[in-house]
Specification:
Elements lengths: L14 E5 L9 E2 L9 E9 L1 H4 L4 E8 L5 E15 L16 E13 L5 E9 L5 E14 L6 E13 L10 E7 L1 E6 L2 E5 L13 E6 L6 E7 L5 E9 L8 E2 L9 E2 L5 E8 L3 E6 L12 E8 L8 E10 L3
Antiparallel strand pairs: 1-11, 2-9, 3-8, 3-9, 4-7, 4-11, 5-6, 5-8, 9-10, 12-21, 13-14, 14-19, 15-18, 15-20, 16-17, 20-21
């Protein structure tokens, strides 16, 4: 797979809170839960207190973590679950604080390029209500490993309790290890950002993988650009798929359709065609200046480029990503 350099994000101050502080470059690090150079299964659970989240009922729209160094995270199954709990402390029982409604963001067989000592955001939706108590974060990483140099851990907060388990099989054990040092986290209620995954692209006739990237801004009243590079030919055709949901697991393997190694990651809600020049194209997305757009599902994007000699389907896929609208 081709490494796309970093998730692109508009990380200026917006409506986000932090545990323990907005300091993504501080603190010791741990390779649990996002993995080291050797693939393993990891689980963490920890509490973000209501005192951090505030006393206003509002929807969580994104969550971010801070790696100590830039690297490519390869995770067979990444699951982040948010729920609220009346508990203020954890026990060794991973179900001890689990109550009520939960919301989950799940990604199958993802390659997630992350930037060191920065907040790397992922979209998730959860209706936070202070009457329901603290926020409980659970992260499951199956087959997690990292490719990169230097410190492969993520920054921790030494003062926050964390429940961990590693090396498990089908699921984490009921009884886990209780300690200190939870992953530092940013929780956003309103944030404009882009997220890029570098998997699911396949090789075209030019021996390159089409690549998606994002430029501009997804703030209200601004324009977010969905860019394409690496398509074959001096001129050609590319199709941009937009979807408000990504497909479960690894998406749709297009081998049976005649495109081995290509995957469809997005639910197909909208399809737009664009001309390519020297393998590149740009799809501008003007964001209306309307507060009603805050909280809509993130817009998932993936390019398919017309390449008649690449395979029987005559199309090759790019990697994929999300546009999250914020003010």
């Amino acid at each position: 797979m081709t490494l796309i350099v970093a998730t692109a994000a508009d990380l200026s101050a917006q409506s986000c809170v932090y545990l323990p502080a907005n300091q993504p470059g501080s603190g010791a690090s741990s390779t649990v839960p996002f993995g080291s150079s050797t693939a393993d299964n990891h689980f963490v659970q920890y509490i973000v207190p209501q005192s951090v989240l505030g006393n206003t009922k509002r929807e969580i729209l994104g969550i971010a973590f801070a790696p100590a160094a830039s690297a490519l995270r390869e995770i067979n199954e990444l699951t982040i679950t948010l729920r609220q709990t009346p508990k203020n402390t954890l026990t060794t029982d991973r179900l001890g604080a689990v109550v009520g409604f939960s919301s989950t963001a799940q990604y199958g067989r993802v390659h997630w390029p992350v930037q060191g000592n920065q907040w790397n955001r992922l979209p998730i939706r959860y209706p936070y209500d202070p009457v329901n108590g603290n926020l409980l974060i659970e992260i499951w990483c199956v087959g997690a490993k990292a490719q990169g140099a230097g410190d492969l851990g993520f920054r921790q907060d030494a003062a926050t309790q964390v429940l961990t388990a590693s090396g498990w099989g089908f699921q984490p054990p009921r009884q886990c290890t209780l300690g200190m040092g939870a992953p530092r986290v940013e929780v956003c209620f309103d944030a404009a950002f882009f997220t890029v995954f570098s998997d699911s692209a396949c090789v075209g006739s030019n021996q390159k993988m089409p690549q998606i990237s994002f430029t501009g801004s997804s703030r209200l009243g601004q324009t977010a650009n969905v860019d394409l590079a690496g398509a074959s030919g001096a001129s050609g055709l590319a199709v941009l798929i937009w979807g408000f949901r990504h497909l479960a697991g690894v998406g749709v393997d297009l081998t049976a359709a005649g495109a081995p190694g290509c995957f469809l990651r997005m639910r197909i809600d909208f399809v737009f065609g664009f001309a390519t020049t020297n393998g590149a194209a740009r799809a501008p997305i003007p964001i209306p200046n309307s507060s009603s757009l805050i909280g809509i599902d993130p817009l998932g994007c993936q390019w398919f480029t017309f390449d008649p000699t690449a395979n029987a389907l005559q199309f090759v896929s790019s990697n994929w990503g999300f546009v999250n609208i914020g003010s």
